[in-house]
Amino acid sequence: MLRDPVGSRVGGWVEVLDRPVLFFGGKGGVGKTTLASATAVLLAETGRRTLLVSTDPAHSTSDALGVPLGPEPREVLPSLWAAEIDPDVAADAYIAEVKARIADATPPRLAAEVERQIDIARVTPGAQEAALFDRFTQLMAEAGRTYDRVVFDTAPLGHTLRLLALPEHLQAWIGGLIGRRRKLGILHRVWRNVAGAAAGEEREVTDPVLEALEERKARFTAARATVTDVARTAFVFVVVPEWLPVAETDRAVRTLQRYGIPVGAILVNRVLSGEPASERIGGHGGQLEMRQEIARRFADVPRRDVPLLARDVRGLDDLRRLVAHLAPDGRRGIP
Question: What's the average model confidence in pLDDT over 276-294?
Fold first, then answer.
């Protein structure tokens, strides 16, 4: 295992790059979008069909790549596609799909009330997260099929942690809905048996609501299995050697570990080379001191330093300058 003077473990980064699903997260302003985009470029340039997906409402992935993006994947390089998911648009599409699914199963006299209840659900807390995770599950399922790698550039940490914790809660919630829906079906059959001919002719029809619930439960179950599979998924934290980002990342790592989500690597961004011992950042000591703190707090997590560049990264040409720093041992190829 290669190490730098403050103990940064770089060998594990190769294993992280070999996993089909990567989540990039970090405190706002640490360079998460830039490094997620550069990693996607690295993977694409080594022949992996890669999808880069941004769920950050700031929509800065377009700026990082230098191309406009929308909710559907767009090819921006050979073997690299990218998309930006707008949570509001995702929630609207989610609600429209729910309405379409239940339209045929709702008696006309109840249709208006059912639609009203669905519209109320659209603005309740958690509706955006549920819709966003539904889109997550669809895209995660593409890893290993349409794409070799799916790289998620997530929203700032608090939002992302809530999102990744959703599968456990949603599985239980949907399981309850399925149970109640099946009970209604049983009651309907009992009523027909009691009513006999008065109930009219029975038609064999499927229950679109139950089908939708079963399908969604299967997708959430698969997503839960994916995000907790150390062979398929890794969460990559981006941090800068400053006290607040390090402390927040420490809390986030412990949260993910509590949910069984594998933390694959820590990318320490904007590292100064040849830093004088007297250099001070943010009043919390020099970068060397904070890098030592990072090594202490995340001793069991592979770490990789990314240097501070002379200018902001904008566009594919600038991203390619970062690729050499992210490729194993500075090489462009991945063994």
Answer: 66
